[in-house]
Each structure stands twice: as structure tokens, then as C-alpha cells.
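job 3f2a | input accepted
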Amino acid sequence: MNDRHPYDALTPEVILASAESLGFCTDGRLLALPSYENRVWRIGIDGGEPVVAKFYRPGRWSDAAIREEHAFALELAEAEVPVAPPIARDGETLHRHAGFRFALFPRIGGRDPQLDRLDTAEWIGRVVARVHQVGARARFRHRATLDVPSFVEAPARAVRASSLLPRHLADRHAALTGDIARRVVAAFAAVEPATLRLHGDLHPGNLLWREAGPLLVDFDDCATGPAVADLFLLLTGDEAQREALVEGYETFRALDPGEWRLVTPLRLMRQVHYAGWLASRWDDPAFPRAFPWAGEARWWEEHLDDLARALDAID
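job 3f2a | predicted structure (315 res):
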């Protein structure tokens, strides 16, 4: 049995050589940056600013899907939306070295945004609206859609096919996720939201605050969905903060107020998807180390209790 994971071959020598294959002269400095889905490293450049290298998880995205991610980020940068686009070489942004697909990005510093500040929330709302203005211009052809098949049914199957879910919880998991799928479909049908290209994972960790304001990073999960899917992860629970976020957003783009009815369904989808993500990645040694509690029955019992409570609140 071969217990090696593909990322085991991503040695420091391979990482440095990847940047050097594109003409960069590295200085040997490497710093691993937080990422579980991919592997991300800051690489020191001799006589220049560091670059950030993202090595894509083998088998996750097609080349076409990654190129759509890059094209969206470049389109946003062209529209002067503050994002970190990939670095192109000879017109190409997706590169290969030693069997890995990777992209390079400029290293951009920043700090965590203070989401509880109303002026910060309003500013972020304006930037998200500008992302959506660009996102509404065209459609993704190869990226995921925030829908029940992709974010409820597929991850639920992954959980039940894994060794993580205790056998005595399998029937309850199947019943709950089946109910969630039906209720989420009904919720979306009741609202009938317009969909567009989104960042797709706009939690505070994917926002950097700089002197010039917010900057969005990591479009790895960009997807098609309703506008509120890029807003609800930024909510602090304070009504004034939400109003400031919306006020900033509507400076550039109208937001259908009915979409707020999708927040609980979207949260449910995210919870189910998260569990499926853990289950489908458990063969990566980084996951048992980082999420040891996912191997315990107690966590899965609490996870199902959380799903049940959220399902009760979906209306």
C-alpha cells in the first residue's frame, strides 16, 4: 500500500525551481502560508519583492476552471478593483513544474479588517459591489455553482462514503441532509435570485486591509451564485454593521432585499460542504493533524445537532 500523498513530492527544491523556471532568481527563503486545499508559499526573490506561489491540489480543478479563476481576477484588476491577480509569463498564468500546476502572485501585505467599524463595513460593501458589477458581465463555463447538487448532495455522499462518520449516525445524516436539500431547493425557488460570478469564499481571512482600503485575495473558490453569498460571511451579527455593508454595496449596485432570506440556507450548505470537504481530504496528512476532532464521534454528533437546529430556523 502506498501511503504517500502527492504533496509529499513538493519539496523546497521543487518550490524554488518552480519560480526559477519562470525566470525568477530566488534567494532560498521560503515561508509556508496558511492553506489546506492547496499549498501556498512565499518565495524570496534576489534583489526584488517576494512572490507567492500557489500549487493547486492535484485532481481538484480542471485547467479550464483554473484559467477561469485567473481570467476573472485579471478582469477585476483591469477594472481597477483591488485584487491580487496572478502573474503572467508569455500570456500564461497557469504553469507546470515537476508534475505540479502552480501560479505566482505578487506578495501584498495587509492586516485584518475591523468589520465592526461601520466605515470599514461600508467601504467593503462598495468593493464587493464592484466585484459583482464585473461578475455580472459574463458567465463562468467551468466553475462550480452554489447549488444543492454541488454543495449538499455531493459532500453528503462523501461523508457517508468515508470512515469518519460513525456508522450509528449514518441514517440520521442521510435523513438530515436529504431534508436540507429539499428545503434549500424550496428556499431558492421562493426567492429566485439572480446569479453572477462571485468571489465564492469571501470570509474575513480573504480580505486584507491596507491604507488604500480593502483588497480581496484567493479566488480559488470563485463560483456562480447570488450576490448575498459574497456578503453573509462578512456579517458580525450587528444590524448597524449589516446596514453599513448594504449602504456601501448599493452605492454601485442594487441588492435584492429578498436575498437575505437565503442566508440560513447558504449557511446550511456551507456546513454540509465543510463536513464533506474534511471527509474527502482525510487522506492528506495535513488534515488529521489540523482537524483531529473530525476523527471523533462527538464532533459528528454535534455537527448533526447543528444542522438540525439550522434546519429548524430555515424559514
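job 3f2a | The chain has nine helices and nine strands.
job 3f2a | closed
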